[in-house]
Design goal:
By secondary structure, the chain is α+β, with helices and mostly antiparallel strands. It has helices spanning 7-14, 30-43; strands spanning 15-21, 47-57, 60-69, 77-86, 89-99.
């Protein structure tokens, strides 16, 4: 939903009111990250996310995903999201990403 620009709806449905995050570029509260996501969508819309791996351990879920832009030629990004859940809502998030190089010396790729 967030990749398609439905950020507020995604937050209402999946994000707890006491949500915190660990993205170093923004304040750690719910509203700050939601606002940043809305602004990012306005500047670079039409993203797509393809989850490649999912791991679960108790109340924590980790995803390893590919994010691409549908309309421009920005490099794709490999992203790891770590979600901690309580009462079926995300209460805490860590997200880490790296651009995928067109010519990497690693023959195995990022996935």
């Amino acid at each position: 939903m967030a990749a398609e620009g439905e950020i507020k709806a995604a937050y209402e449905r999946f994000i707890a009111s006491n949500f915190i995050h660990h993205n170093q570029y923004f304040k750690g509260d719910r509203q700050s990250l939601m606002t940043a996501m809305e602004e990012a969508h306005k500047m670079s819309p039409n993203k797509s996310i393809e989850v490649k791996h999912i791991f679960e351990d108790g109340d924590t879920v980790l995803t390893h995903s590919l994010i691409t832009r549908k309309k421009n030629h920005e490099l794709p990004i490999a992203v790891i999201h770590i979600f901690r859940f309580k009462n079926n809502k995300v209460v805490e998030l860590w997200d880490l990403g790296q651009k995928i190089l067109k010519k990497s010396p690693n023959e195995n790729g990022v996935f």
